[in-house]
């Protein structure tokens, strides 16, 4: 890695979306190779350990059973094809990389602009024969993408490279109320960029292995460290909270069951309950370790990093997986019929959960008992036959009109307004290349009512489609 940086990230089994694994035999081969070595500690120096953790953080491996809510809601209609389609590409020449093919990653909208990460991870891994450190084999651009939601056009990306020789692309982004856009690169330091001036600051003191970002209390920023807390290659992952200037506020390692480590993914700050919600994976580190109640527990920490709840199963004992969680900074402007009935799902916070074959969107009332997430009848049914072997909820966002947008890897976007669900299938770009079959990361609403989503299509692309009103 650039500059000879080291990391305490551990070597995890691959955990990649199965849609991607189905698209490339190389990824599956690499997954099996790492899974076979899952219990062997690796030295946490150089690229190998961090690359393995990167693959794990992206979902390279088994998704396992997920958890949601039992209930008696009517089966929602099948996803409808998007009413129209348009594709917006960033010309590869703008990124000035002769050897790497970038694509669009995690995104978040603010003030009419969709900001998103850009990385060559998938194509580089394919070109490297399944090696997840392929992105680090050659220097390349490090930039944050921008898409104007008002005019539906690409804007020039923001260069965030600290100096010549950067190798990692950008992963997650957080447009902050202070005007900066914070970003992670996983393999290299996180940082922030100021769009107005172009000023860039890298936050090397926070360490490596940083993945998904979220706005925290008082303007602080939270980020998941997928593994290797404190420089120990076998250490569990952690929640990291830092001030807007980059000063570390706290790092809270997540307690694992015996023989496992906890690998945190999506995080969200619940302002009503003054607590952090964290979606996690458990990764086995010892073959004889007893099986836990869930391989994907949702963990709730208080503002000081102390664990307050761990959600593993519903009342019937079925494993629960919280795939994504989001809290609105303020009550969303939509009518609701009361907490728990699905009508007000977006008034406070929401979680996308799966149990059995059902995908649901459950309301998370600020300060309420976290286990209410899986109470019987909780939430709206989004998909009664969720193909968990092929799909995953990658993003949940609040639109300006109060709608909740649930984006899946497969390009299905569930639009929830006032307790009603409209499911749309974003059109695939016909030129999607093998191994980059249109993985969708995040959707945002335009002022005109369209949906625009970042899509990893072996190119930096945003796809827009008209969203029909809910039936």
What does this structure look like?
The structure is a single chain. The protein has helices at residues 18-23, 25-36, 47-58, 92-95, 121-127, and strands at 80-81, 86-89, 103-110, 113-119, 143-148, 153-159, 173-175, 181-183, 191-193, 200-202, 210-215, 221-225, 238-242, 248-253, 260-270, 275-284, 298-302, 307-311, 321-327, 349-355, 358-363, 380-383, 393-398, 404-408, 412-417, 420-425, 439-445, 450-456, 460-466. By secondary structure, it is mostly beta strands. The strands form seven sheets. Strands 1-26-25-24-23 form a five-stranded mixed sheet, with no helix packed on it. Strands 2-29-28-27 form a four-stranded antiparallel sheet, with no helix packed on it. It has five helices and 29 strands. A hairpin with a 5-residue loop joins strand 11 (210-215) and strand 12 (221-225).
Summarize the structure.
The chain has five helices and 29 strands. The protein has helices at residues 18-23, 25-36, 47-58, 92-95, 121-127; strands at residues 80-81, 86-89, 103-110, 113-119, 143-148, 153-159, 173-175, 181-183, 191-193, 200-202, 210-215, 221-225, 238-242, 248-253, 260-270, 275-284, 298-302, 307-311, 321-327, 349-355, 358-363, 380-383, 393-398, 404-408, 412-417, 420-425, 439-445, 450-456, 460-466. It is globular, with a radius of gyration of 20 Å.
């Amino acid at each position: 890695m650039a500059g000879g940086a080291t990391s305490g990230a551990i070597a995890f089994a691959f955990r990649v979306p199965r849609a991607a694994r189905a698209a490339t035999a190389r990824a599956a081969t690499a997954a099996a190779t790492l899974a076979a070595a899952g219990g062997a500690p690796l030295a946490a120096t150089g690229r190998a350990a961090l690359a393995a953790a990167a693959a794990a953080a992206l979902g390279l491996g088994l998704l396992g059973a997920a958890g949601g809510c039992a209930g008696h809601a009517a089966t929602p209609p099948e996803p409808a094809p998007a009413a129209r389609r348009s594709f917006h590409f960033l010309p590869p020449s703008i990124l000035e990389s002769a050897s790497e093919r970038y694509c669009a990653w995690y995104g978040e909208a603010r003030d009419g602009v969709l900001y998103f990460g850009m990385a060559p991870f998938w194509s580089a891994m394919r070109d490297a024969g399944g090696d997840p450190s392929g992105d680090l084999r050659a220097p390349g651009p490090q930039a944050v993408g921008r898409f104007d939601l008002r005019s539906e056009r690409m804007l020039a990306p923001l260069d965030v490279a600290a100096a010549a020789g950067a190798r990692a692309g950008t992963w997650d982004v957080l447009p902050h109320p202070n005007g900066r856009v914070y970003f992670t690169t996983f393999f290299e330091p996180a940082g922030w960029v100021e769009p107005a001036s172009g000023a860039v600051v890298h936050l090397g003191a926070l360490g490596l292995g940083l993945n998904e970002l979220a706005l925290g209390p008082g303007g602080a920023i939270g980020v998941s460290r997928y593994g290797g807390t404190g420089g120990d290659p076998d250490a569990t992952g952690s929640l990291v909270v830092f001030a807007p200037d980059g000063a570390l506020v706290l790092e809270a390692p997540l307690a694992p069951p015996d023989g496992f480590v906890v690998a945190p993914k999506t995080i969200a700050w619940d302002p009503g309950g003054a607590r952090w919600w964290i979606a996690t994976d458990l990764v086995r580190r010892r073959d004889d370790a007893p099986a836990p109640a869930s391989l994907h527990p949702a963990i709730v920490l208080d503002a000081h990093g102390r664990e307050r709840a761990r959600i593993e199963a519903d009342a019937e004992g079925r494993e629960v997986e919280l795939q994504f969680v989001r809290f609105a900074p303020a009550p969303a402007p939509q009518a609701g019929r009361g907490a728990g009935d699905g009508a007000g799902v977006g008034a406070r916070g929401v979680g996308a959960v799966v149990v059995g074959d059902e995908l649901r969107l459950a309301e998370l009332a600020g300060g309420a008992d976290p286990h209410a997430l899986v109470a019987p009848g909780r939430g709206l049914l989004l998909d009664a036959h969720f193909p968990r072997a092929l799909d995953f909820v990658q993003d949940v966002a609040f639109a300006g009109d109060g709608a909740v947008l649930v984006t899946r890897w497969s390009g299905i976007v569930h639009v929830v307004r006032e307790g009603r669900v409209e499911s749309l299938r974003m059109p695939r770009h016909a030129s999607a290349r093998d191994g980059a079959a249109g993985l969708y990361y995040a959707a945002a609403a335009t002022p005109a009512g369209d949906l625009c989503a970042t899509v990893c299509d072996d190119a930096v692309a945003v796809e827009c489609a008209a969203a029909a009103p809910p039936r």
